[in-house]
Design a protein that fits this description.
Layout (H helix, E strand, L loop, with lengths): L2 H11 L4 H7 L4 H9 L6 H11 L3 H4 L11
Helix pairs in contact: 2-3
């Protein structure tokens, strides 16, 4: 699974909107949408914010592992 599919699935599973996650990343809804749709890359700072927000490992968020692991 690629990271775009994974971060979209996590967001949807938690009933969050793109606007809400955009606010976490200090981006507009459109800016976050571009990440999920592949028109923009996920920056490392944004990855760190998402890991902290969701309390999930970066390996899981970017699709390197399939088991949900909390931050250590």
């Amino acid at each position: 699974m690629n990271y775009r599919t994974r971060i979209r699935a996590i967001r949807e599973d938690r009933d969050l909107t793109q606007k809400q996650i955009g606010e976490v990343l200090q981006k507009s809804q459109q800016g976050y949408n571009h990440i999920e749709d592949g028109r923009a890359e996920l920056k490392i700072d944004d990855l760190i914010r998402l890991c902290r927000f969701y309390n999930l490992s970066a390996d899981y968020l970017i699709g390197l592992i399939d088991e949900e692991k909390p931050l250590e």
